[in-house]
Design brief:
The longest helix has 17 residues. This protein has a three-stranded antiparallel sheet with strand order 1-2-3, covered by helices on one side. A three-stranded antiparallel sheet has the order 6-8-7. Strands 4-5 form a two-stranded antiparallel sheet. With 294 residues, the protein is α+β, with helices and mostly antiparallel strands. It folds into two domains: 47 residues, no CATH class; 240 residues, no CATH class. Bound molecules: zinc ion. Zinc ion binds next to strand 6.
Length: 294
């Protein structure tokens, strides 16, 4: 559920951001005049909805056979309860021990303009059992057998990055890589050298598993990144261009710049939080994938 206060805050903020941003950067040339501005602001402020178990079925068609109102049913027959709703618990406790239900609760605000200061952390709660089942436990050596190589910026950089092939994440990243490449050379500095993809580690501040440990996250160039732990007390900041964020989100990756604990170089595959995303849309792109090592 989205609280009315949150909706109103989004509305006010969206109108403010829209009216105060330079006209040439709004990117909405079709909206002209007062009515257009109001309409655009209302569209931007449409409340984002919390994800549901049905979003998990839509987003991960290869993983789930169904949901019976209480348990998620995996294709191998494993049943996993959604678990308790711990909305009243301190958020950092939810981050450490969140249930699948907690993981879905916070709506991801993909419709808000890039650079809007986030008010919460949609996607930062990750249920360990859920993602270990999906991608494997990296500490048990279960993730690396699924890693494959994707060529990052094939014409402008051309080095291989390793990413999981589970859920076709490699296929989606290859599509992202090609679209980012086509943005042009002025965007290259944000994208290379890469901060990294797979790393069997925990999140720096809270010791919870990182999406990097499941092989389904990527950090772009750290030199243009803003990270809340590096700017304690400094307030929200972002230098990543909206065009880059939009490409990732179109292919199933959420952005750490939409977290109040922001991490603007970070993107992770979380298609359940992106309602418009079709996980079957990206075709195999063998030409975009580097040769696999033996
Ligand atoms: Zn990261």
């Amino acid at each position: 559920m989205v609280r009315p206060v949150t909706v109103m805050a989004r509305l006010v903020r969206a109108i403010h951001v829209f009216l105060t941003s330079p006209r040439k950067r709004r990117g909405w040339p079709a909206f002209a005049g007062h009515d257009g501005v109001v309409l655009a602001a209302l569209l931007l402020a449409l409340p984002a909805h919390a994800a549901s178990p049905q979003d998990l079925l839509r987003a991960y068609p290869g993983q789930f056979a169904g949901f019976d109102g209480n348990d998620l049913i995996w294709r191998d027959g494993t049943r996993m309860p959604l678990g308790a709703d711990d909305a009243a618990a301190p958020f950092e406790d939810q981050v450490r021990h969140g249930s699948i239900r907690d993981q879905l609760r916070l709506a991801y605000p993909a419709t808000l303009p890039v650079g809007t200061p986030p008010e919460d952390d949609p996607g930062r709660i990750r249920n360990k059992a859920f993602f270990d089942k999906m991608y494997g436990d990296c500490h048990a050596g279960e993730v690396t057998p699924h890693l494959v190589s994707v060529t990052w910026l094939p014409s402008q950089w051309g080095h291989a990055v390793r990413i999981t092939s589970v859920n076709n994440v490699d296929r989606h990243l290859a599509a992202i890589s090609r679209e980012l490449d086509a943005l042009g050379p002025e965007y290259r500095k944000y994208l290379v050298p890469l901060g990294g993809t797979y790393a069997c580690r925990t999140v720096a501040d809270n010791g919870t598993p990182s999406m990097h440990g499941w092989g389904a996250a990527i950090d772009i160039n750290t030199a243009f990144s803003d990270y809340w732990l590096w700017r304690r007390g400094g307030g929200y900041a972002n230098r990543e261009p909206a065009a880059i964020v939009a490409i990732f989100e179109r292919h199933g990756f959420i952005w750490g710049g939409r977290w109040s604990h922001y991490d603007t170089m970070h993107f992770e595959y979380r298609p359940e939080l992106l309602p418009g995303f079709d996980p079957t849309a990206d075709e195999p792109l063998e030409e975009a994938r580097a040769p696999k090592p033996n």
